[in-house]
Amino acid sequence: MYLNLDENKTKETVKQLDILLADYHLYYQKLRNFHWNVEGKNFFDLHEKFEEMYDDAKIKIDEIAERILTLRMNPVSNFSEYLKLANLEESNANLEDYQMVETLLEDHGRIISQMRKVVNTADKGGDEGTIDLVGAYIRELEKSSWMLEVWLKKLS
User: Fold this and answer.
1) Quick one: CA dihedral 19, 25, 26, 27, positive or negative?
2) Which among 80, 83, 34, 82 has a CA at the least distance from the CA of 61?
């Protein structure tokens, strides 16, 4: 294989990528849920922010799946499997705006943790491509989390 990666180690990386893919699918749907259902004085800010975030998540979903395909494996692609694999859970639509942001911050922590598992597994397999892709995701999600955290402080 032109990638020159150990197939068994790559399988372990793909297992972690599939979990990340599942996390991102639930995260994406949660963002859509919150985008549609946010109400109150922060509607305009959060409605727009949630749309920006789900657009970003949609891109990452595609990139993660394509990375798995690049590694010559098939990504998990059924929502029933995502629900089994994911570190995240679905959310109700009837949350207050600040509860939505708190929920997303909790999810960010779980997603970042999964990303670190991907990076550690990929590192053991010498998979620099996956490390580079997911490392950038970590940085971006940490920044997004910081911004949401600052928004929450504004409400205090």
Assistant:
1) positive
2) 82
Query: What single string gives the DSSP state of each residue in 86-143?
Result: -S-----S---HHHHHHHHHHHHHHHHHHHHHHHHHHHHTT-HHHHHHHHHHHHHHHH
Domains recognised in the chain with CATH numbers: 7-155 (1.20.1260.10)
Q: Quick one: 107 exposed, middle or buried, by C-beta within 10 A (0-12, 13-18, 19+)? A: buried
Q: Is the pLDDT confidence value at 156 over 90?
A: no
Identify the DSSP state of 42: T
So what's the pLDDT on residue 32?
Answer: 98
Tell me the angle at which helices 43-70 and 128-155 cross, rounded to the nearest 10 degrees: 170
Locus of tokens 């409400």: 155
Q: What is the mean pLDDT of residues 137-149?
A: 97
Rounded CA separation 155/143 (Å): 19
pLDDT (average), residues 37-50: 96
Mapped onto helix, strand or coil, the DSSP state of residue 74 is coil
When the pLDDT of each residue in the chain is averaged and rounded to a whole number, the result is 96
Q: What is the pLDDT of residue 1?
A: 58
